[in-house]
Structures are given as C-alpha cells and as structure tokens.
Sequence to fold (475 residues):
Amino acid sequence: MARLLIPAVAIALFFLETEFSLFSPIEFSGENYYLVPRFLILYLIFLSIYYDRKKAMWYGLAFGVLNDIVYIDIIGLYTFLYPFICFIAGSTVKYIHQHLVVTTTLSLLLVALLEILLHQFFFLIGYTDIGFAEFLNQRLVPTMIANSIYLIMLGWTFKYLLEARVLEKANQSIL
Amino acid sequence: MPHFLSNKRLLMLLVGVILLVALISYTLSDRKKVSFPEQIIKDTVGLGQSFVAKPAGYVTGLINNVDELINTYEENKRLKSRLEEFGTLQAQVYELDSENKDLQKLLDKKSDLRSYDPIQADVIARNPDQWEEKLILNVGSKAGVKVNMAVLTTEGLVGKVIQATPYTSEVELLSTNNTNYRVSATISSKGKQARGLIEGYDAKRGELMLKRIDSKLKVKKGDKVTTSGLGGIFPKGVLIGEVTKVTTDDFGLTKLAYIKPAASFQMLDHVVIAKRQAVQVDGSDGDSTNKDLSNQGDDK
Fold:
C-alpha cells in the first residue's frame, strides 16, 4: 500500500506546486512578495532521509526533468539541483539525529540553499536583475515562511508514510 | 583517506556534468520550436494540470470576489462621480463609431488592425519558481494559438504567447525581465499620438518602461497607452496602461515613460488570446533574429 503511495504523493505534490503558485505574488502595502511552493523537494528530502537516498535521487531526476521541460525551458537546471539536494540530505543521515524537528529544520535549510542557487543562476544568465538583499526580502523570507508552515503541517504525515514503507519492506524480507 | 569516489564513478560524474552544461547552454538559446518529446510531455502534464486547476481556479475566483467586496465602497464612490461623464461620452462614442463605419465603407476599407477573434483560455498553471513570469494555458495550436499572439484580460494586455504545443500554450507576462520582449505601443493624448516600444519592467516601481518615444512629441502624465498593432501580430487599440512619469532615456535622445499597467498580473485565472483578423506578419517582434522579414509577405 505504502509502496504505491510514495510515487502518488510525489505526483500530487508536483501538480499542487503549480496551482499554489497561482496565488503568488502577494501584494502587501505596495510591495510584491513571492511565495514559491517547494512541496515536492521537501517531500523528496524526507524521502531521502527516512527511506532511501538513491530512490530519492531518481525521483529528483525524473521530476527535475519534468519541471525543466514544462516550466523552465532550460533543461538541466532542476535536473541537476533536485538530485543534488537529495544527495546532500541523504548524506547527512549518519551525522544527525532523526528527530522530526531536526529533519524539518534541515529540509528548510536545504530549500533555502536551493533558492539561493537558483537566484545565483538566474542572475548569472540575466533573467533577473534583483540583488541579494532584495531577493532575501521579496522572495526568500516569504518563501521560507510559507514552506515551513506547509512542512509543519504535513511533515509528520510524510514521516509516518515513509516509516510505514520501511516497515512493509522489512516484513517482506522476513517472509 | 578512504576512496571517496572510484575511478568509474568519477568518470561518470564528469561526463554527467559535461552533458548537463551542454544541455543547459543548448536549451538556453531562444528556441522557437518545441521538440516532439517535449510537446508530448507538456501536453500530458497540461492535461493533468487542467484537472487540478479546476478547484484552484474556484479558490482564486473566491479570493478575487472577496477582494472586490472589500473595495466596493470606495469603488462605488469613485464610479458614481464618473457616471455623469459617462452618458455624454457614450453618446459621443456611438456617434464616432457610426461615423467611422460610414467613412470606412466609403473608402472600401475592409481589414482593420483593431478587430480580432478572441480565443478563451483558462490559466492552468504558473511557473512555480516565478523567476520568469510565465503562465500555462489550456488551449494550444489546435485551437489556433500561435507564438507572439497577444494575451488580454478584461482590464487590458497582460502578455504574449511564447510557445504553443497542440493542447497547451505558454504565456510570458509583460512584467518579465526579458530584454528581447518588446511590444509596440501608442500613447494617445488629445488628438495626437506618439509611438514607442515597451521594453522592460521596473520591478521596484511595478511599472512598465516605454522607450524610444520621439522627444519632440509631448507626453503627459495620465495619458493612455494602447497597443499600436504595428508589431505584426497584436491587434490595435488594446489598453496597456497609463503614463505615470516621463523622463529622457539614458542617451538623452528619446523619451522614456513609465506606465502603470491597467491589468493586474496577480491571480490570473481566465484570459483571452487575441487572434488578429488582419494579415499577420511574424516580424522581428520579440524574436531576436534581426532578419529582414518585411518583404516576405509578398513572396509567399
């Protein structure tokens, strides 16, 4: 059961991301604030920590390519970044305590890293001319707030689902 | 030190990086045609999105309604003050309209840059990372959508089509930072017209920049800006916005005007693609080829 749920959730989150971005940017006292939904990569980071790094990287690659083709039209950007983030997340498993609070913080830090890398890339190729301070105010901070709300709400569900899958697998290997 | 990467793995990593950089640099260049596998993927994902977009569209509609409800009182006051002018204006418009039609008939002028066939479209997704201002619509080339067509809401121009697959199309909004994005525009103040090109968006002011206006012509704050129809594909007379500030440009040769866009770029859920009825010329508008395409229409 959990086995089928894992990719299903990933696909659902992929679609939800684009729908939630329809609500952004939000105008507040004359300034635009961008909320970038990062549902999928947060889920993949959890997948990488609680389940399997290699699988998470494959998921990252597949959804990275999809994201690049459908939205960005620069193939290779998310294709690299998603597996890269999953790789880092999976590599930390040995060094950190797998408590939900710790993993949530770690995931949010990794998403911040992703955002910064993307800003640097788009700045480099001239798609944007906003400086780092503005990026921090208009994008990074609101994005992190929105995503932490999301993760606090759903993080435990992901953990529950992934642990159920690990159990399922363990039972199968016994049988 | 333990072997972190074996030789085989290192080689694979290197090849991967080279491939990636090659792919990025290839796809970064302005591609007008979408390759076939990309088309299939885009259409499939688009199909999924159009299902998910239904509830999302409902929620954006609801938020917009609440937003309107909050502003009702002020809006009502403002509209009442305008209502008196409206009656006389309407009479004038009818008169001018009928006169215009008669004169056109007299001249035997059939095609008009103004007229267009509207293609209704729903927004099914927005580029999630929002670095580029892109929307994805649920209609594509099967419905007659072509690259460079104008995209409007009831309030005014919002952007143009940059890519069309059979069942989806991609729109780049006016608020983009893309330097190759130009829209030919007309500023009309009392009786006189000035032309210019919309090039670039000032993110800090939240306003568009209209450049290359002849410095001899007078442009005032409050003048209305519409599309000129001279770009080849856009219809004429679509409202873009209102002039808020006029300065000279970097070199002091031409004028630069800041324009407050009439349409809001937020919470877009329903748009119209304008398919011009007059002959369409796919000129160098937005397509940075710099080729001379002005004589192609005659050859074909």
